[in-house]
Amino acid sequence: MQENITLVNWFGYILALGIVATSLAMIALGGRWQAIEASAYSGERRPWWFWVLSTLLIVFYLAALVVFLTGEKSIAGWILMVLIPVGWVIKGGLVIFNAKGRQTVSSVTGDANWVKIGLLRLPVALGLAVLAALV
């Protein structure tokens, strides 16, 4: 385990924490989570909190990326700082910036479906936390 926690580590830990928090909200709210999801992905205009969180995440990512690029590299770091953001771009293309993708996300209904999605996301959070620890 490394002695110095860097922005790269924090980036991974905060992503993991964000996934845990939203997954637990999905599990707790069930079908009521749909209103939050729909406001972020399927509306004509995104809500203010979507833009604020997106901007903060991008700024934090860019700061962590500078630390990563100027520091020692590891496989975990490459996955966390390069592979995952590429996945975001793909998700953005398929969901956020694509009407059919937005409709797919917006059509998830029912408590059981949101609980399943919330539970399926938890291992992703664990993987991100492990990557963050290994950077």
Summarize the structure.
This protein has six helices and no strands. The protein has 135 residues and is an all-alpha fold. It has one domain.
What does the model show?
The protein has 135 residues and is mainly alpha-helical. The chain has one domain. 81% of the residues lie in helices and 0% in strands. α1 packs antiparallel against α6. It is globular, with a radius of gyration of 16 Å. The mean pLDDT is 89.
Structural key phrases:
135 residues; mainly alpha; 6 helices; 0% strand
What is the helical fraction, as a range of percent? over 70%
Number of self-contained structural domains: 1
Number of DSSP helical runs: 6
Count of distinct strands: 0
Strand-residue fraction?
under 5%
The secondary structure category is: mainly alpha
Order of helices and strands: HHHHHH
The description of the largest β-sheet is:
none
Mean pLDDT: 89
Poorly predicted sequence stretches spanning 5 or more consecutive residues: none
Cα Rg? 16 Å
- End-to-end Cα distance: 9 Å
State the shape: globular
List the helices and strands and how they pair.
Elements: H1 7-29, H2 33-41, H3 48-70, H4 75-96, H5 99-106, H6 111-134
Helix pairs in contact: 1-3, 1-6, 4-5, 4-6
